[in-house]
Amino acid sequence: MQFKILIEETISDTFCINANNKQEAILMAQEKYRQGEFILAPGNLLDVKITPLPKDNKK
């Protein structure tokens, strides 16, 4: 019997940004994250959720 299991991890890391104010720092962090400059792997593992998914009866 085969089951589909969803595994979700919540990870975090801290990055330093030089900015004029907090809002600018947030915007810069978002941009650096989107561009792949800030990588969270492996990061600090905060939480793991393991959830069985409903069976798909469509075949």
Number of strands: 2
In whole angstroms, the N-to-C terminal distance is 15 Å
Strand order of the largest sheet: 1-2
Query: Percent of residues in beta strands?
Result: 25-35%
Instruction: Report low-confidence residues grouped into runs of 5 or more.
Output: none
What does the overall shape look like? elongated
Radius of gyration: 18 Å
Structural class designation: alpha+beta
Range of helix content: 10-25%
Question: Averaged pLDDT, please?
Answer: 93
Main sheet attributes: strand count, strand direction, barrel closure: 2 strands, antiparallel
The helix-strand sequence is EHE
Number of helices: 1
What descriptive keywords fit this protein?
2 strands, elongated, two-stranded antiparallel sheet, 29% strand, 59 residues, alpha+beta
Describe this structure in words.
With 59 residues, this protein is of the alpha+beta class. Helices cover 22% and strands 29% of the residues. The chain has 1 helix and 2 strands, in the order βαβ. The protein has one helix at 22-34, and strands spanning 5-12, 44-52. The protein has a two-stranded antiparallel ribbon with strand order 1-2. The protein is elongated and about 55 Å long. The model has no long low-confidence stretch (mean pLDDT 93).
